[in-house]
Design a protein that fits this description.
Layout (H helix, E strand, L loop, with lengths): L19 E2 L1 E6 L5 E6 L2 E4 L2 E7 L3 H9 L1 E6 L5 H6 L3 E2 L6 H4 L4 E2 L3 H5 L3 E2 L8 E2 L4 E11 L12 E13 L21 E3 L2 E3 L22 H7 L5
Parallel strand pairs: 7-8
Antiparallel strand pairs: 1-13, 2-3, 2-6, 4-5, 5-12, 6-11, 9-10, 11-12, 13-14
Length: about 230
């Protein structure tokens, strides 16, 4: 007997935020201080990351000027730090689009969040010590977005960044291996349709892709990063 297939309905949700990792990005301001803000339009390929940012945000301005950032990845345990930064902006005056969403200007975001800044090795922005993963990065390229829409194409910037250092809490490393993250120990904070979620504590099914050695995906950026000396 044929298996019954699920039915579907046609919908038009305002956003398609089906769940991505929350990233706390730190950048350097014009006066040498640093800015930190949460975002979640990010994905990784090798030692590269694609970031989609509001063109009016302070982090976007800083990235375009300095070409450097740190990508800090929180877990559900750090959600309080993240939420305290919500609807705050380092931009002054507050951009019109953010005024409409009741954002407020805040210069001292590190103090407001309660996060602890720590020096980076290859970039100027600091790392957030509480986050189990902290990645120093530089801008490799910028890309257009929604170029087919005159009203929206100026509102979002897309950055390709190259990772230069990866710092992690030892507790999330695989036992007996120095450079492997254990997915049973690491669980990112997820933004799912503007709400915070975590992952299930264990994998839901074995993975055929997981049988492929991670080393086969190793990027030449790893060797490039090794040659960098701490600044």
């Amino acid at each position: 007997m044929p298996r019954p297939l699920p039915s579907t309905v046609r919908v038009e949700p305002p956003i398609l935020y089906f769940g991505t990792s929350v990233v706390l990005i730190s950048t350097t301001n014009e006066d040498g201080t640093s800015n930190i803000a949460p975002m979640s339009s990010a994905f990784w390929l090798g030692w590269r990351c694609i970031l989609g940012l509001d063109a009016s945000s302070k982090n976007t301005e800083n990235l375009l000027r300095t070409g450097e950032c740190v990508l800090n990845l929180p877990t559900p345990a750090q959600v309080g730090f993240v939420d305290r930064l919500a609807r705050l902006t380092g931009s002054h005056p507050v951009p019109a689009a953010k005024q409409a969403r009741n954002y407020a200007h805040e210069k001292n975001k590190w103090e407001v969040s309660g996060l602890t800044p720590a020096p980076s090795e290859t970039v100027t922005p600091p790392r957030a010590l509480e986050c189990p993963v902290q990645m120093e990065a530089v801008v490799a390229d910028t890309h257009g977005f929604m170029q087919d829409d005159p009203a929206w194409k100026v509102g979002i910037k897309v950055f390709e960044v190259r990772i230069q250092r990866v710092h992690v809490h030892p507790a999330i490393l695989m036992d007996g291996v120095s450079d492997r993250i254990d997915p049973d120990k690491w669980g990112p904070l997820i933004m799912n349709f503007q709400k915070f979620y975590g992952l299930a504590p264990r994998q839901v099914h074995s993975s055929r892709l997981g049988e492929i050695p991670e080393a086969s995906y190793r990027s030449p950026d790893v060797d490039r990063a090794r040659r960098l000396q701490p600044s």
